[in-house]
Write a structure and sequence with these properties.
Order of helices and strands: HHEEHHHHHHHHHHHHEHHHEHH
Number of helices: 19
Strand content: under 5%
Oligomer: single chain
Largest sheet: 2 strands, antiparallel
């Protein structure tokens, strides 16, 4: 067995309790352990990327129990890519929170690592029940991180978040029960085999169970009509924490991809073909709602939430059409949108600590410490999110538009994507003018020394990654073509 596969789960699972027991009163030591754990997870992810690229998909049966009786960990090129992306975001966030966000609670770093454990476990598991378990780990850790620092508004938003996700978890568990009752297994590969021999009388139970789980994945990914929780929740959560949540929304899309290709959602005449057909309309509506929300947002944090909604819709366009070209475009845009969202939330954090009473409200305000670096980071994030050249957002949206040229819904897709991009351009430009290029600066504060130096460092790393995605688009596309080729081969 390949023991490398268990390490992305094992490292945070071991480190977090150690921090609770031995370093909960020692913030510097907790920081060292948290950053070190994320570095090691990133190195393991790099090893896995190389391993699955050269030797093919890898699996690991916990306790030596084979599927479907035991817990199986599975990694292919897509899994390794997502693990590396999560590790990178986890690392830059763990650097940024050292500006002081982690001082608001003694268990912050331990909870942060439990969140990483849930994310990595969701990417690695090959079993639907264990996917439910890791969803719950993410939910508990996300709630704790969201209400970190306290406050009535934050607590109210956190309560809304946890209630909606508990409802989703209940529906997920019902779906798992229906699925197991119909085919007698929860291992996704085993389910894919058994569904072909399923008696006709079990079809409705199977279809209902899968539909419930897809609805829960849509809730996690904030797709219309399940998106309502995200903008308000992310607006009130600590922005540095929300930068990590940019990865958790991708878990929903990842789960859709896994289940969709295992059960042939896009193959005409199959049991689940009807589920695949609603994805494109939902994707287009999600993009529209995200674009309108960006224009109407009153705070930067809320606006950033709507950009996440729009990006999830854009990714789902590629997933819903499910051709090689659209899937490559969707994967490229998935990486780009995660980095761009993280950068925008870093900017929100910097604005909140440097702008004074106006905080991140999109209105005229007085800056306590104005810095051109913060405005520059916002400009880079805005260009990347809208999809203007020369950054990777332009390449990503161009790939999506080009990949749907021969699709029946090409006109609708082009109209929605270009129209929503225009709306986001207007909204982000308005916010930039109101927040960064108008207002006054208090004279008694030095204008060149903003708070949040480590957050600026983290922003620089993410901005450099967006530039790297642009410069290195060709080799990255080659890797993504390999990822998609494996997915399509596994389907056939």
């Amino acid at each position: 067995m390949n023991h490398w596969l268990i390490l992305p789960i094992l490292i945070p699972a071991v480190t977090a309790p150690l921090l609770i027991v031995s370093a909960r009163y020692d913030t510097p030591l907790s920081r060292v352990f948290c950053v070190a754990a994320n570095v090691v997870i990133g190195l393991v992810a790099i090893v896995l990327v190389h391993m699955v690229s050269t030797a093919g998909p890898q699996s690991y049966a916990l306790g030596g129990w084979p599927a479907p009786y035991g817990i199986v960990i599975y990694a292919d090129s897509l899994t390794a890519m997502m693990l590396l992306l999560a590790a990178m975001i986890g690392l830059v966030v763990s650097i940024a929170v050292m500006d002081g966000e982690d001082e608001n609670g003694r268990y912050f770093h331990a909870i942060f690592l439990f969140q990483m454990m849930g994310i990595n476990g969701a990417f690695l598991t090959a079993d639907l029940f264990n996917l439910f378990v890791f969803f719950e780990v993410m939910l508990l850790a996300s709630y704790a991180l969201m209400v970190h620092g306290g406050g009535a508004n934050r607590l109210r938003a956190g309560l809304q978040f946890v209630v909606l996700n508990l409802v989703g978890s209940t529906l997920f568990l019902i779906g798992v029960g229906l699925l197991y009752g119909a085919c007698g297994s929860l291992n996704l590969a085993d389910v894919a085999e058994r569904v072909r021999e399923l008696p006709t009388g079990q079809h409705q139970a199977m279809l209902t169970g899968v539909a419930l789980m897809i609805g829960v994945f849509a809730l996690k990914a904030a797709l219309v009509p399940f998106h309502l929780w995200l903008p308000g929740t992310y607006r009130e959560a600590p922005p540095l924490v929300t930068a990590l949540f940019a990865v958790t929304t991708k878990v929903g899309i990842y789960a859709m991809l896994r289940m969709g290709f295992a059960l042939d959602f896009w193959e005409p005449g199959t049991l689940f073909y009807s589920i695949g057909q609603w994805m494109l309309p939902a994707a287009l509506v999600t993009v529209v709602v995200g674009g309108i929300g960006v224009v109407g947002a009153r705070r930067l944090g809320e606006m950033a939430g709507y950009t996440v909604v729009a990006s999830m819709g854009t990714i789902l366009i590629g997933v819903a059409t499910a051709t090689e070209g659209t899937l490559v475009a969707a994967h490229y845009y998935l990486i780009h949108s995660t980095l761009a969202a993280a950068l925008l939330y870093f900017v929100v954090a910097l604005v909140q600590v440097n702008r004074g009473p106006a905080s991140d409200s999109i209105r005229l305000g007085t800056w306590q410490r104005r810095s051109g670096l913060i405005g520059s980071c916002y400009f880079i994030a805005a260009v990347a999110i809208v999809g203007l050249p020369p950054l990777s957002g332009f390449i990503g949206k161009l790939l999506v538009l080009k990949s749907v040229q021969l699709q029946p819904a090409m006109i609708w897709t082009w109209s929605v994507l270009l129209g929503a991009s225009l709306l986001m351009l207007l909204g982000l430009t308005r916010a930039g003018i109101m927040v960064f290029w108008t207002g006054q600066t208090q004279e008694q504060e030095p204008m060149h020394r903003p708070r949040g130096v480590l957050t600026l460092v983290a922003s620089g790393i993410v901005a450099a990654s967006l530039v790297g995605m642009t410069v290195g688009a060709a080799p990255l596309m080659e890797y993504l073509e390999h990822v998609v080729e494996h997915m399509l081969r596994g389907q056939s």
